[in-house]
Amino acid sequence: MRPIVVALLCAALSAGMALAKEGNECIVAAGSVGPDFGLPHVAQAISKNKLDVAVIGSASSELNGPAGTNIAYPTWLEATLRELLPGVTVKVSTYARARETAAEMEAKLPRIISESTPALVIWQTGTADAIRGVDPEEFRAVLDDGVDKLRAADADVVFMNMQYSPRTEAMLAVAAYADAMRFVALKREAVLFDRFNIMRRWNESGVFDLYGATRTTNVAERVHDCLGRLLADVVIAGAKLAPVASKGTE
Amino acid sequence: MLLPKPDRDLRLDLFRGLALWLIFLDHIPSNIVNWLTIRNYGFSDATEIFVFISGYTAAFVYGRAMREQGTLVAGARILKRAWQVYVAHIFLFAIYTAEISYVAHSFENPLYREEMGIFDFLQQPDITLAQAMLLKFKPANMDVLPLYIVLLAGFPPLLWLLLRTPAVALGASVSLYALTLYFEWNIPAYPNGNWVFNPFAWQLLFVFGAWCALGGAKRLSAIIRSPITAAVAIGYLAFAFFIVLTWYLPGLSALVPQWLEDWMYPIDKTNLDVLRFLHFVSLAVLTVQLIPQDWPLLRSRWLRPAIVCGQHSLEIFCLGVFLSFAAHFAMVEINQGVAMQIGMSLLGIVIMVATAALISWYKGIEGRSPRSRPGPPGATLVGGGV
């Protein structure tokens, strides 16, 4: 009996270590993802022990596991924030809808603000606009208007750009939209979570095989897990950065 | 191999050949060799070089044709060229559609449910194909040829004006550019938005190239040769390099003052931002100062591969777009390692050079054959008249 238990224990332990190592690997391989600007409203919310976050996005902010459970990055973000912020009530609400463009999301902002009064809005966008060929200039203007609305409602913004998708890379021109997001983020001193480059580094360093064709959600789940945890780190680092960043408060 | 006419400025062929290589490299996604291309070091990229030199050579070739054969014949030849470019574009679209259909059927991953949306257009070929032929539906990286078709189609009356009153023609071009920026004119695209390269804005560079070819460069030579101009150009290139650096190292962006960011961004490629135009002009001025027209290396075998590509730019451009599809496809299906990226980049350039040499050889044998049509003077340059 005892050898079996030991073997089981060893197996469990090594599996756990492998998982931890892999988790760690994806964080390390992501490179530096620190926020460029502070998140003052998040800092304030943490000091009041209540942090409400809204995630606005399209299909890449949703992912359901085999059992139908939600395993998309907002879930991991919420879990990690709770872990890192003991004593703070953290709630992450997701407003994700497939094929929705930035303009359609922007139109929903007032409703989202009144519904969940977020201190932070994670705005994932770009892919749907690239697929539909929305004018990048219009896309940029919409993001700009969105930042106005969110700041007027005392919410910080973190933009999340598109996924790195090596299979479709030559067919979907995302550069103009990624540039627009970077421009708006720089100009408005909002944080940009550069999902595209993070995923590209994962692919390059072999942490995840993003080329592989599969029907299972195994890789997808681990990608979202890592994204959620990285995002949580960015949120907390942004909150710590807030008091110093004088320009970022407006 | 057919030797070009002695009065042909080989620098044009050289830099257009290099631009074609850069466009090919830029169109292979996730390619480490991309880091060599100029777009990572400043505002403008190979597209500016290609459009400017195309305007320059078009004016050079068809300007002479217009003087010697008359407005009607030269105009007809320009439109024939536009038609050839259109046919080439539709051919590329067919290849693209074949590739994307294959990928759509062979790839599945829940992570990329959203990205699979690009295959939606395959569901309604009736609309998509018609829109593609109207040049309204343009897949990724297939925007340069439609721009070029429109520029050529509008070129005959402009060339006529350039030959009579160059200043008025250039003034008209600048006015159209300014009005386009002010009224936000562009050609609508399908399913949404506008053309990625706005022809009403990009014509400025094409016409500027044509104007330079028809005596403008001579008129400006005092300014172009001046060391003050060189100093300003170097300063501007350094500034652009620093700004581009802040995009890759966001920590540096704190060094860029807010007023400058407000004024500068966005640096618009669709409408040929003035910052991009100036960046190209700075590069061009320095190039002209550093490399004289009779630079011995231009006749050497070392630069021959780029020059021969530049002399058959339409064919090599199309081949480059196809090869970038093919290279990406090979990387997806076989291996995406750095060695593969470098290998595919080199192989692609070798194929481009070999094809250009083959086209030159064909032109040579066809030119010598007795059944060839009696070409007008300068007809050998038409292949390079893109």
Describe this structure in words.
The complex is a heterodimer of chains A (250) and B (386). By secondary structure, chain A is of the alpha/beta class. Chain A has a single domain, classed as 3-Layer(aba) Sandwich (Rossmann fold). Chain A has nine helices and five strands; from the N terminus they run ααβαβαβααβαβαα. Chain A has a five-stranded parallel sheet with strand order 2-1-3-4-5, with helices on both faces. In chain A, α2 (40-47) crosses α9, α4 (102-116) runs parallel beside α6 (136-152) and α6 (136-152) runs parallel beside α7. The longest helix of chain A has 28 residues, at 2-29. The termini of chain A are far apart. The model of chain A is unreliable at 12-21 and 244-250 (pLDDT under 50). Helices cover 66% and strands 0% of the residues of chain B. Chain B has one domain (10-384). In chain B, α6 (155-164) packs across α7. Chains A and B meet through α5, α6, α7 and α9 of A and α3, α11 and α14 of B.
Gyration radius of chain B, to the nearest Å?
Answer: 21 Å
| Count of alpha and pi helical runs of chain B | 15
Radius of gyration of chain A using CA atoms only: 19 Å
What share of residues are in beta strands of chain A? 5-15%
Low-confidence stretches of chain B: 1-6, 369-386
Content-based structural category of chain B: mainly alpha
Could you list the spans of chain A in which at least 5 consecutive residues all have pLDDT below 50? 12-21, 244-250
**Main pleated sheet of chain B:** none
Number of domains of chain A: 1
Beta-strand content estimate of chain B? under 5%
- Multimeric organization: heterodimer
The CATH superfamily of chain A is identified as SGNH hydrolase
What is the count of helical runs of chain A?
9
Head-to-tail CA distance between termini of chain A: 66 Å
Mean of residue pLDDT of chain A?
Answer: 87
Helix content of chain B: 55-70%
- CATH topology-level name of chain A: Rossmann fold
Mass-distribution shape of chain B: globular
Strand order of the largest sheet of chain A: 2-1-3-4-5
Give the N-terminus to C-terminus distance of chain B in angstroms.
Answer: 20 Å
